[in-house]
Amino acid sequence: MVPRPPTRAVTALAVLALLALCAPGLLVAAKASSPPVASLRGSTEKTVPLRTHSIYAPYVDSDLQNRWFDFGGSTIINTNKHIRLTQDRPSQAGWLWSRLALAPASFEIEFEFRVDGKSNNIFGDGFAMWLTKGRAGTGPAFGSTDYWNGLGIFFDTYANSRHAYSFPRIYGILNDGKKSYEVGKDGQGQELGACSIDFRRTDVTAKARLTYIKGKLLELGIQHAKWDEWTTCFAVEGIELPSQPFLGFSALTGDVSDAHDIISVTTSNIAYHPPASNSKKPPPKRGLPGASFFSTLFSLLKWVLVLVIIAVAVIAVRGRRATANSKRF
To answer: Pfam families of this UniProt entry (predicted)?
Structure first.
């Protein structure tokens, strides 16, 4: 007799059993490959706005200068709309740098930006935000020098090599001035933190919010889908930037291009409020030695007593029935 192949029901049960056995491992793998990023800035509070590191329309005065910022390269100022670091043309590089260093040890920088162009398929290269010890010059790192001392956050729209993640991509790199930015690898392996977010041609004005608490945390949030809906791109604890860095923005186009606009920059000093300590809570009450044993024993005896009562009741009922039956005969 030829054995019958397993039915679909049996096969399905086998698959379900296999999934049940493997599910914990599968869930762990999924979480490891794409971990959720939790925000760390919930206990921060803006205190003093820093006019020296904030810029808004019309951006320049009557002399076509700004008191607190310098700009150059391909940068064009539209006093009603934006600071355009590059136009949608090949081979452009523009920059915007604060004239003064950022003195506070803890601060938050929120800026509005827009990246757009004629092409729907191939575009680039992107722009960068800088917090560096010096005001960097023009170079291959998104229009700025590739050796910098401080933090660079890159809003990259063009992948120079193949990656397991998608573009556009945002990533931060902390440099000590001795390492070169690896353009061909799009900084892969150098990132402090990163995320893949499509910030190009957003329905609402895109925003980025960098929160820095000296020695405690560095967090980047992005608004790109809805107003006041922030996505945490990355959050890193125990980070220290160089003291008194300059704030800058730069952008670059190569064979492919986009318009890279900075619309506004708002910088504020912030205060950090650590979570409330539990040290003031009264200590938990300690029970008597052996109290747990006696409690377990009492519970066991209680159930034994219940079973004995049930058994006695059953015996009594059966006895009454037997007596009643004997009287009939």
So the answer is: Lectin_leg-like
User: β-strands 149-156, 44-49: how paired?
Assistant: unpaired
- What residue segments make up the domains of the chain, in order of their start? 44-272
* Residues 44-272, CATH architecture: Sandwich (2.60)
According to DSSP, the β-strands at 230-237 and 259-272 are: unpaired
**Secondary structure of residue 115 in the 3-state scheme:** strand
Backbone dihedral angles phi then psi of residue 134, each to the nearest 5 degrees: -125, 165
Q: Long-range contacts for 217-222 (Cβ within 8 Å, ≥24 apart)?
A: 217/40, 217/41, 218/151, 218/172, 218/192, 219/39, 219/40, 219/41, 220/153, 220/170, 220/172, 220/193, 221/39, 221/41, 222/170, 222/195, 222/197
Contact 109, 209 (CB under 8 A): yes
Widest Cα–Cα separation across the chain: 126
Name, in order, each residue with C-beta under 8 angstroms of 179's C-beta and a sequence gap of 6 or more. Answer: 147, 190
Beta carbons within 10 angstroms of residue 125's beta carbon: 28
205 C-beta neighbours (distance < 10 Å), count: 14
DSSP states of 260-298 as a string? EEEEEEEEEEEEE-PPPPSTTSPPPPPPPTTHHHHHHHH
Whole-model pTM: value is 0.73
